[in-house]
Amino acid sequence: MFPGMTYRRQFADLTEQEILALAISSEEDDARIYRTYAQRLRADFPASADMFEEMACEEDDHHRALIASHQKRFGDVIPLIRREHVSGFYARHPIWLIENLGLDRMRAEAAKMEHDAANFYTKAAQHSSDASTRQLLSDLAAAEAGHEARANALQHQHLSGSASEEESRTAHRQFVLTWVQPGLAGLMDGSVSTLAPIFAVAFATGDTWTTFLVGLAASVGAGISMGFTEAASDDGELSGRGSPIKRGFASGIMTTVGGLGHALPYLIADFWTATSIAILVVFIELWAIAWIQNKFMQTPFWRAAFQVVLGGALVFAAGVLIGGG
After folding, report:
1. pLDDT digits over 27-59, tens only?
2. Are 151 and 185 within one domain?
3. DSSP label at residue 9
4. 182 and 99, same structural domain?
5. CA-to-CA separations, 144 to 76, 79, 148, in angstroms, rounded
6. Is residue 131 one of the residues assigned to a domain?
7. Statement: the pTM of the whole predicted model exceeds 0.70
8. Most confident segment among 161-170, 223-232, 294-303
9. C-alpha span between 78 and 226 (Å, rounded)
10. Are 68 and 108 contained in the same domain?
11. Of 144, 160, 176, which residue is a domain's last?
């Protein structure tokens, strides 16, 4: 075997003891993952935390039963074999290590964990030629399928009525704070702050290519600046606004998009065609900002539209006057 290469056993080559040992380590890993989810969710989503804690307890019960079975058949020494040692065995990607992992993603990962385990054991049992091994795999498949059904039952038990509604409101608030708010700030900055330089250059030079380059530079520069400013301004620990990296990306990308929207039309060679399209794009951008404010920030639509359109119009007029002068 070459250095750095990882040797993996084929599942068909495993003994019954090794299969049982593999099941034991898998159950232990899954219990730890569920407890990690519960710990992450305890402060903001207590009902879901209880659900994952109970799922971890279910894994503990199966873990103890598997150890008892191994002790009865093979003794106390359990071979060291894990998922990564077996070719084709379902993997557990380290998604649980990501900070600020969303509640819906945790639930989806949990469902996938149980489904993958049940599906793997079912298929493995169908391809096994040894009667005792086939029975063992069938039992494991039934246990994992029971876990999946139990997970659905626990979700209904712990997430009914007011608890589910409260967690939905908390998740929505977190989404707004982490993605919508910095993204909206970036879109507003990119759309409005670049109006003056882009249209000033356009009317001063009449050169669409020069105008595009200035717009591109202004948009990308503003995006980088806004992204770093948002990421560095608040680590999210005390404010609860979430990951600074996520907020920085949301702010930076939307700032760049806001500026590029009315810079891209200047790739058109004809000045008045490009300018007319750019003005139309500005109008769409400003109304999109007003719509986002109304939908996610509960700002009355017409008030948001008036504020955004008025501010954009003033900046646009300043750019035209400076460039035309």
Report:
1. 888 889 889 888 888 877 787 788 888 888 888
2. no
3. E
4. no
5. 24, 22, 6
6. yes
7. no
8. 223-232
9. 55
10. yes
11. 160
Joined tokens for residue 249: 């990306």
Instruction: Look at the chain and report how many structural domains it folds into.
Output: 2
Decide: 219 and 260 in contact? Cβ < 8 Å.
yes
Of the chain, the end-to-end C-alpha distance in Å amounts to 75
For residues 176 and 87, membership in a common domain is answered with no
Does 202 lie in the same domain as 139?
no
Residue 248 lies in a domain: yes
Does residue 2 lie in a domain region?
A: no
Contact between residue 110 and residue 83 where contact means Cβ atoms under 8 Å apart: no
- Cα separation, 64 vs 47, in Å, equals 26
Nearest C-alpha neighbor of 230 from the set 188, 171, 278, 282: 188
- Which residue range is the domain that position 212 belongs to? 165-324
Residues near 240 by beta carbon (within 8 Å), at least 6 away in sequence? 174, 177
Residue 60, Cβ density class (10 Å: 0-12 exposed, 13-18 middle, ≥19 buried): middle
| Partners of 86 in beta bridges | 9
